[in-house]
Design a protein that fits this description.
Blueprint: H1 4-15, E1 23-28, H2 39-46, E2 51-57, E3 60-65, E4 70-74, E5 79-85, E6 94-100, E7 104-110, E8 116-120, H3 144-151, H4 158-163, H5 173-183, H6 196-215, E9 256-260, E10 263-267
Amino acid sequence: MPELPEVETVRRQLAAVLPGRRIKGVDVRLARILRNIAPEALQERIIGRRFTGVDRRGKFLILHLDDGARLIVHLRMTGRMTVARAGDPEWPYTRVVVSLDGGSELRFSDVRTFGTWHYAGDTGGEPPGLAAMGVEPLSDGFTPDTLAGVLAGRRAPVKAVLLDQRRIAGIGNIYADEALFRAGIDPARPAGSLSAEEVTRLHEKIREVLQASLEKGGTTVRDYVNGRGVPGEFQKYLEVYGRAGQPCRRCGTQLVKRKVAGRGTHVCPRCQR
């Protein structure tokens, strides 16, 4: 599933080409992708409108229109959002095509069809949970004190807390594993047991690994591509995720995969005691 760096990479690339473009047509090929509006109603409301900006909240893409409405897209596991020239070959399983002036198209493809689109106008329409999302981990508001407050008193595994979108927005399985490894913290430890020094170190490593992934265009494990249809490169730099059975690059111990908070979790038994 695309996480914060992947969704932010797509956002930046869409933001470079969408603002100012007028919508000429909408082809919805799988109606259930639209969660709160019928295809015909969506066409009526957005054809003729212009895009004015592209934002991100957690793992949601937010496409702003010139009448104040928003298209809110969640890529989920296999969703892809790209802009291409009309007539160029499409990705398999293209579900929505938005035709733009100038001869290009905004395309959404999704193999497993878990991705969603919401139309949010004056009367609401935001997806459940969007307004309740926690602090953005790359924002100025995410400080060591903020993280300490999120973890304080929690008996749940620290990894579970990092994955809770109501507390920190956008961290998923890959970057939780990578940040905890870099910080030398066992993912199964109770969140409230971390010392002030460990919290500070974890805060630093969360931001470090997210920023490093952004610089490499995100991580492509299976399906993710950016807004231009190009895979990311950060998978080449992963320290633990997906490397179970291989030696730790830091100490040589064999990496293991175990369940923590119901998720497959990659750990170095020596570096993360």
